[in-house]
Specification:
Elements (H helix, E strand, L loop, with lengths): L11 H7 L2 E5 L7 E2 L12 E4 L20 E5 L7 E2 L12 E4 L9 E2 L2 H7 L2 E4 L1 E3 L4 E10 L5 E4 L4 E6 L7 E2 L4 E6 L1 H12 L6 H14 L4 H9 L7 E4 L4 E6 L6 E2 L4 E6 L3 E9 L11 E6 L7 E13 L4 E9 L10 E7 L7 E5 L4 E2 L4 E8 L2 E6 L1 E6 L2 E6 L6 E5 L1 H12 L1 H10 L6
Antiparallel strand pairs: 1-2, 1-3, 4-5, 4-6, 7-27, 8-30, 9-24, 10-19, 10-23, 11-18, 12-14, 12-17, 13-16, 14-15, 16-18, 19-22, 20-21, 20-23, 21-22, 24-29, 25-26, 26-27, 28-29
Length: 440
């Protein structure tokens, strides 16, 4: 009677050549694996594990791998840049996660499950042009507005008969009397003016006399009184030339005032200058007319508005700062000159919009800046970018992404970990491809 011959025995090496070996495991079932053939300490061969024999992860129900494709590698369960060609546990005892063929994308992107993306709160925003407000902070000091200063002096020698404004800091209004003066030169010209009446050249002489009175600096209101008075005015009441505050008073009653000597210094305090010290690296961002906010230490709860009116043409060699003049309204005279101020200049107003992303979208390693481009369906592409100016929580992108592309702006640390893992695969893949062909 014919009997079928038993099939010939197939050695482990022949089996390994016929089927693809994923890895070799300890013959005693210990958690010890190897990517290539290996022997135990007592000389026994490790057992091969084939594609169709991939066991389930420890502590999980049995899962069929059929239909998922072959296992490419095992990755760290916490998303760290660590992979293994064989099953492995991390220091906390968690199993490494298998990555199957078909779960990989192109080498330039990484895939994260949509469920994980949603739980981690990953959020994306489009790259769009924005006007970047770049507040520059600098210390400042309040100064008098030099354009409003006015010196009060005589153009002829005289004697101060009476002081009406008699203290520094007094407020004066234009036209209000400040002092009374007697000037022999002014009286002499008045007498000449009156003696010319009735003379053949009287009109010409009177015109010349009035012009000399004007040359002495007498206001038109005083000259009109001289023209209408039958007698010379021995005492002249001097009016205030502007509305302001007496900053200096250099005269006392009875004093002889020589021509050209400053009697008062007046200033209009309805506006002041704040001189800010802007650092050398920031001065190129400041533009004339840029708005500024000022916080004076005397009024910590208030802010004052101003505009940059001038940028001085030299740097302080000691501090390497430039002086920036900011003009500020001061209607109630609350800002006192020499007050300290914290200045914030908006350096972005009036400039063209710039292609930008939120600062949180940039992963900055110091030598390299990367954003994660959201390509949809849980796929993200790390993209190196070149950054420009920053402002108002955004940063300019000079190169690397295009307008309209979505970039991750929150929870990008999660995808960055996956991306680091992806970068580590290049060296591993070549080694893995050689493992099945190894001979014991």
């Amino acid at each position: 009677m014919w009997r079928a011959e038993p099939p010939p025995e197939i050695s482990v090496q022949e089996s390994a050549a016929a089927r693809r070996v994923l890895y070799w495991k300890d013959p005693d079932g210990k958690a010890d694996f190897a990517p290539a053939p290996k022997k135990t300490a007592d000389g026994r061969d490790y057992l091969p594990v084939y594609d169709e024999e991939e066991p389930p992860l420890a502590g999980t129900p049995n899962r069929k791998t059929k239909g998922k494709g072959r296992i490419l590698y095992y990755r760290n369960p916490m998303g760290l840049a660590d992979t293994s060609p064989v099953p492995k546990k991390d220091p906390m005892g968690m199993d490494y996660i298998p990555v199957y063929e078909g779960e990989e994308q192109d080498a330039g992107s990484v895939k994260v499950s949509l469920d994980r993306v949603q739980r981690a709160g990953v959020r994306s925003e489009p790259v769009i042009p924005r006007v970047l407000a770049r507040p520059l902070k600098a210390p400042g000091v309040a100064k008098l507005n030099e354009r409003t200063l006015r010196s009060v002096s005589l153009r002829a020698d005289g004697f101060i008969d009476k002081l009406i404004v008699n203290a520094t800091g007094e407020d004066v209004k234009a036209g209000d009397p400040m002092f009374v003066v007697y000037s022999p030169q002014v009286v002499s010209v008045q007498i000449e003016y009156r003696s010319a009446k009735g003379a053949t050249d009287g009109v010409q002489r009177q015109t010349g006399a009035l012009q000399r009175l004007r040359n002495f600096g007498l206001p038109e209101s005083v000259i009109e009184k001289i023209k209408s008075s039958p007698d010379p005015l021995m005492l002249i009441t001097w009016p205030a030339p502007i509305t302001g505050v007496v900053m200096k008073k250099n005269v006392v009653k009875g004093q002889m005032a020589k021509a050209g000597e400053e009697l008062y210094l007046l200033a209009d305090l309805s506006s002041v200058w704040v001189i800010a010290d802007v650092s050398e690296q920031d001065i190129g961002l400041v533009r004339l007319g840029a708005p500024a906010k000022l916080h004076f230490r005397a009024y910590p709860a208030e802010s004052f508005e101003g505009k940059v009116s001038f940028i001085l043409h030299e740097l302080d060699p000691a501090t390497r700062t430039a002086k920036v003049r900011i003009e500020v309204k001061n209607p109630n005279h609350r800002i006192k000159h020499e007050m300290f101020a914290d200045v914030e200049i908006d350096a972005g107003v009036g400039e063209a919009s710039r292609l930008s992303v939120p600062v949180s979208a940039v992963i900055d390693s110091g030598s390299r800046q990367v954003v994660l481009v959201d390509k949809g369906d849980g796929r993200f592409e790390p993209r190196a970018v070149k950054l420009g100016v920053r402002g108002d929580g955004f940063v300019e992108i000079l190169r690397g992404v295009s307008q309209g592309e979505n970039v991750v702006v929150s929870a990008n640390f999660l995808i960055d970990a996956e991306s680091n893992l992806k970068a580590a695969l290049a060296g591993f893949t070549a080694e893995q491809n050689q493992a099945p062909d190894a001979k014991p």
